Structures are given as C-alpha cells and as structure tokens.
Amino acid sequence: MNVLVTGSSGLIGSEAVEHFDRQGHRVIGVDNLRFLNLGCGERFHPDWVNLDLHLAGPAVRRWDLRDELPFADGFFDVVYHSHVLEHFHRAEGLRLLKQCHRVLRSGGTIRVAVPDLERIARLYLEALEGSLTGDPAWRARYEWMLLEMYDQTVRETSGGEMLAYVRRDPLPEAGFVAARLGGELRRMTAPPASSPARRSFSALPSFVLRQIARLALGRGRLRAYDLGRFRLSGEVHRWMYDRYSLARSLEGVGFAGAEVVGAAESRIPGWAGFHLDTEPDGSVYKPDSLYMEAVKP
Fold this sequence. Notes:
alpha/beta; seven-stranded mixed beta sheet; two-stranded parallel ribbon; 12 helices; 42% helix
C-alpha cells in the first residue's frame, strides 16, 4: 500500500512516516513525484516535464510526439495531455497512449482531456431542433455547434471559420460561445504577443521553403503544397472521442479503471494547484472537454 504525504516531502523521515514504514507501506511525498505534460502548448507548470513541438517558455522542451518518448520505462508517476490526442489519426493516437503507458510506473496515473464528442453531438441536435422553430438565438447556436463538429477537421487555413466567428462584432450568442470555449476564447481573440520583428524572423524558414516550392512546382501546384503543409501542421483534428471510445482506447493499451472526472477533480496529488485544466479563479479553461483518468496496473 502507498501512503501519500500531501503538501511537502519534508515529512519524509518524521515519526508519523516511520510508523507507516514499519507497517510495510511506501510513503510518497508530493515533491518526489514525477509529472509529464505532453503537447503542453501554453498550459504548463515548472514542476512538470513539459513537451511540445513549439516552445512557449523556458520550462518547455521541444519534442515531436510522433517520435518515441525520450524517457525510461516506468519513469513518471503522472502523464497528462490535453487536447492532443484528437490531432492524431486513431492508430497514431493508440501509439501515443502506448508510449504513455510505457513511461508510467506501475500504479501511475494518466489523465487525458479531449473535445467531448458526445456533448458536441447532443448540443448540435438540441440546437437543430431549436433552429427549426425559427428562433434566432437557436439558429446562432446551431451555426456554432456545426463549427465545433466540423471546422477543425476540414479547415484549410489556421483558425478556420471558428476564428472568424468569434471575431464577429457583436459575437452572436456570446454567452453560449463563451460557456463552450472558456479561457480558450480569450486566447483566440487576443492580439499576438510577440513583436512584428520576432514574428518575421520566426516565419523566415517557412517563407524560404515556400519560395523554393513555388519555383520547383509552379503556381498551379503551389496551392496543393500550401494545403498539405497546413494539414500536416498539427492544427486539424484527425479523430474524435466520447467517454466510451476513450475508455476503450485507454484500456486497450493496458490501462485500468478508466473513469470520467471533472476539470478540478483528480487522483493526481495537488492537481487543482497546477491550474492546467482550470484557471486560478477556479473557472474551467476548456469547458468543451471530456476529462478521463486511468491507472497503469
């Protein structure tokens, strides 16, 4: 049996801990746990190992999640990824989950957040019925839910029609859209944080590649090149999950006890304090999410 000492690993060696040790229990301090955040984007914590293809801060390490994770078997106590799995084809997603299983220790926890396909489908059907009555509010909700279902799968430019929708002034059914997007709405509508000079410098390699492609392919084939590069950039959704299919995927690669949890609810020690699925004020960052946890036996 493991006994978790919450708050500080400084209690290790205390009389209370020695008592549990004499009873044959392994005592774990929160500070001793190893946490891994995959595809972290801008949602990361310095106490975690954070991997992403794009560096959003000094605590983030660049890594392509299509490659094998660069860690030993059983190295981590917790593996977490949010709105990452849906960007992989189904078979690729299973390979990623297998990698998560490999780097987790026995008894370790995986936490996965994905867009909730079931909730999207139910809201779409509800909005469809309401829009057929001619109600303008329901028609606006219907338009948004249709975008939630399809836009990030079929889009051909960054942000797609969802970005164009949230930039409307006024925003149709603003309360409904805000309730669906949460903190993501602020990110989508915020101006770029970097300076024009920095953006120009970072875009230079892509500009050079495109000019080479234009010369090699000609204008007629350049459209296909641009579309292919965008579709492979990692922004589009390649698969979707509900509570049944996500649990089956986790259990299929060896996890056990898959269960739906809330944004602030977790078996991960100190989870709420990391503010990965919630904001400091307690609000949910991505309310459209399905959150699920499972354990490596």
